[in-house]
Each structure stands twice: as C-alpha cells, then as structure tokens.
C-alpha cells in the first residue's frame, strides 16, 4: 500500500522517473488481474494505479480519453455501433457516449472490479453511463467475445500498458489483431493505445505498429502529451480501407457529429496529433 504524504517514483523508461507526492490514500486491494489503488496526488488530483503504474490522473485524464476516442469516431462516416474493449467503465465510455449518432455502445472487459472502483472513487470519470440505454456491459474473456460478436463500426482498444508481463498481453498478439479485424465492418476503424512515445523507446512503439500492420492495410500512428504520465502517449488508427486525414474538414464534421463540449480535443490538437518531430518521424516514416 502507498502511504500518506509519501512520494512515489514511476519509471518512465529505464533510469528515468516521474515523481508524484501523495496527499491522501483512498483505496487499495486486489482484483482478478491487478493490485489496484486510488490516491489523491498533490498536483494531479485523484488517480488510479494498477500494479503501481499510474493509469489516469484527474488533472488531464480527459486528454488521453478524448485522444483515444474522437479521432476514430469523427473519421468514420457512420459510427453506429462501437465496442470499448478492455477499457472498463472509465473515461473512454464517457467520451463515446458524447456522440449522439452512436446507437449502441458495447463494453467488454475482463476485470469488473476495476470498473467498480472507478464508479465508487473516481466520479470525474463517470457520466451516468450505467443507466444509458445505448450501453451493454459484459465481463469475461475478450478473445472469446471477439470470435462470436456481431461486427462493429469502431473498436476502441484501451488495455493497460502493452508490456510483456501485462495480464492483457494476449490482446496484443497477431491472433488478437486477426479477431479484431474480423470484428469490424468493411469500413470499420480500430483505435488502439500503443504505450509511451519516448526517444529511448520509439523502436518498441514502432514494433507494435508493425505488428498491427501485418493484418490491417492502413495504420496511422499519432500521439499526445499526457503530462501526468510523464511522457507523450502513442495511439494508432487501423482500418481495412484508407481514410483521409483532412484537418480542413474537421470543424464541420465535429459540429455535426459532436454536440458536447470537450476539454482538449479541437482542430489544433487534432492537427498536432499527426505531427512528429524530426528525430522521431525519421523512424516513423520508415514503416
């Protein structure tokens, strides 16, 4: 358990740490897959930790969640049916439900206790989603679900960090990508988080992108700064057909599809997501 008024150091990459001071400790306990904690940091507010790794902080969780959800849902012409895969009942679901044209939202996760912790201790992550008539919630084996589900227009894949020792590691395999591919409609889009983007670890990010590209013909990586996580965070949109990344039409699309206000995502942030600094883009463009 983390102690009150203690500092924690989270390793971002080997030998590099990000330090947070804990103001108070709200919860700790074991789930099926994780050791879960809820704390309040001095500067970043309420935070969820799984296995001593920060998953979200109140001060900027919306940056991560808006970046994970809205590019795919705005790009797809008719995202009627959306799957939130391995992300529990957190901010991902909240953001998907802001799209009024979405008719059905399915949540599939393997760890119901994490969702219960979010519901109880992290009110800023909720939006009365459990009572929303569009929502269907399931807990169980994600791979088995993908093998038997009806196809989706968009899949938001928001597992914990895709590391080798992750309990969700099986979801970052070729078998999993094949099942996700088959679970998408012909014009479907996968939005997937691919971990931290750091000069020391950019090759690991690229390896994940290459693995997805072995199944999906179109894979577009992007990234956003999530300060509470200590680094830029990487995502990718993968699809069976090519989509144009046209910043010039986003404003009209966003106005027509998304009536709710957002804290982070707008035309400028969208454009910046696809821009890579030279020392990283040299590697990105090789793929």
Automatic annotation (TrEMBL):
Any one biological process term the GO annotation gives: spermidine biosynthetic process
Catalytic residues (UniProt): 158
Domain PABS as annotated: residue spans: 6-240
Catalytic activity: S-adenosyl 3-(methylsulfanyl)propylamine + putrescine = S-methyl-5'-thioadenosine + spermidine + H(+)
EC primary class: transferase
UniProt GO MF annotations: spermidine synthase activity
Coiled-coil residue windows: none
SUPFAM superfamilies (alphabetical): S-adenosyl-L-methionine-dependent methyltransferases (SSF53335)
CDD domains: AdoMet_MTases
Binding residues for spermidine: 158-161
Binding site for S-methyl-5'-thioadenosine: 109, 167
Pathway assigned in UniProt: Amine and polyamine biosynthesis; spermidine biosynthesis; spermidine from putrescine: step 1/1
EC number per UniProt: 2.5.1.16
Keywords linked to the UniProt accession: Polyamine biosynthesis, Spermidine biosynthesis, Transferase
A Pfam family the protein falls into: Spermine_synth
Subunit and interaction comment: Homodimer or homotetramer.
PANTHER family: SPERMIDINE SYNTHASE, SPERMIDINE/SPERMINE SYNTHASE
Protein role: Catalyzes the irreversible transfer of a propylamine group from the amino donor S-adenosylmethioninamine (decarboxy-AdoMet) to putrescine (1,4-diaminobutane) to yield spermidine.
Family per record: Belongs to the spermidine/spermine synthase family.
Protein name: Polyamine aminopropyltransferase
Annotated organism of origin: Clostridium pasteurianum BC1
Gene giving rise to this polypeptide: speE
